[in-house]
Known about the structure:
Blueprint: E1 2-9, H1 16-19, H2 30-35, H3 45-48, E2 54-57, H4 69-77, E3 81-84, H5 89-98, E4 101-104, H6 106-111, E5 117-121, E6 126-129, E7 134-137, H7 143-151, H8 154-160
Amino acid sequence: MIYTGNVIKYGDNIDTDVIIPARYLNTSDPDELARHCMEDLDREFVKKVRQGDILVGGYNFGCGSSREHAPIAIKASGISCVIAKSFARIFYRNSINIGLAIVECPECVDETKEGDKLKVDLENGSIINYSNGKTYKITAFPEFIQDIIKSGGLMNYIGSRK
């Protein structure tokens, strides 16, 4: 799986209440959630995000409540992959469960700027920043996790195996 896109970057401790505010949790419609993704942090997010863009964050990305709405909102907004220094454990698993690719790479986060163009290769375990010319080694996902993400999430993956 290869993802190429422009970077939208935020800092540390981006919690699920910032990703999708609680006032929108009365729906599970991905399109509706996407319309409100990041609005309390960055009112321009939904205007600037383009299909395939890559979200970059700092430490403890996705902390807070365990709602699946947060990775659903990010994925539905058009983000193809999230790179962070670290992820909250439940957010990490929820992201894989709904088919959102996520990668931990502190060095890449430190050396990447808003608007940089990245290529993330989950099969071979690398990130290339075309804007600064640097390449970063990441741990490739095991094949079964790659299959879950390729399938669009755990439920689709399970359904395809019957």
